[in-house]
Design brief:
The chain is an alpha+beta fold. It folds into 2 domains: about 5-100, Jelly Rolls (Sandwich), CATH 2.60.120.10; about 130-195, Orthogonal Bundle (Arc Repressor Mutant, subunit A), CATH 1.10.10.10. The protein is about 45% helix and about 25% strand. The protein is built from 7 helices and 12 strands. The strands form 4 sheets. A 4-stranded antiparallel β-sheet has the order 1-8-3-6. A 4-stranded antiparallel β-sheet has the order 2-7-4-5. The two termini are about 25 Å apart.
Length: about 200
């Protein structure tokens, strides 16, 4: 997204987060811009029954948590390390200065936010109106383009666990497993060594 050199020029520092460590909490005001150097971060909420809903999953060179940063509003979800992660953190005021002085970066940020907004609107329609198989396939197809899943001889390796697919689509894990098996029978997906390919 933004080069590490440019972020560091404006005062960004690298922070390490252990697996399951919280980067920021739902309900807190944002103070920094965050960009992943390595690892994986999820943004999530829990409903009253304690069920997790994943708002998004972010990987190397992706940023997260910007909308509240721009609006100076409280975070609507928490950010948690899915695995050991290294993140560049840039103070909000320095981030705004970086954008003012680098218009091309501002355009990149706008494109990134537009992509996420598009994904949210597509998934909201899917979750409210479609059957589980359709939801799972739509998420996977979006993941191929947005998350840059790697392709090999078997196809695109879908780098989501069954639990993550459930949490991203509002489905129970058992339903996700059934949907994936049904999609495999229809030839839409392949399951090789318990890994899902498209």
């Amino acid at each position: 997204m933004i080069t590490a050199d440019l972020l560091e020029k404006y005062g960004a520092s690298k922070k390490f987060y252990e697996k399951t460590a919280t980067v920021f909490e739902e309900g807190k005001l944002p103070t920094h811009y965050y960009q992943i150097v390595s690892g994986e971060i999820k943004m999530n909420n829990y409903n009253d029954d304690g069920r997790e809903f994943i708002q998004g999953i972010f990987y190397k060179e992706q940023s997260f948590g910007e909308p509240p940063l721009f609006l100076n509003q409280k975070y609507p979800a928490s950010a948690v390390a899915v695995e050991e992660s290294q993140i560049l953190c840039l103070l909000r005021s320095n981030f705004m200065k970086l954008l003012e002085e680098n218009p091309a970066i501002s355009i990149k940020i706008i494109e990134n936010l537009a992509q996420r907004l598009y994904y949210k609107s597509v998934m909201a329609a899917e979750i409210s109106t479609h059957e589980p198989e359709h939801r799972v396939l739509k998420l996977i197809d979006h993941g191929i383009s947005y998350f840059n899943f790697k392709k090999d001889a078997n196809g695109f390796l879908i780098n989501f666990t069954r639990q993550q697919i459930g949490d991203l689509t509002g489905l129970r894990v058992e339903t996700v497993i059934r949907a994936i098996k049904a999609l495999e029978k229809k030839g839409e997906l392949k399951i090789i060594n318990r890994k899902v390919y498209r």
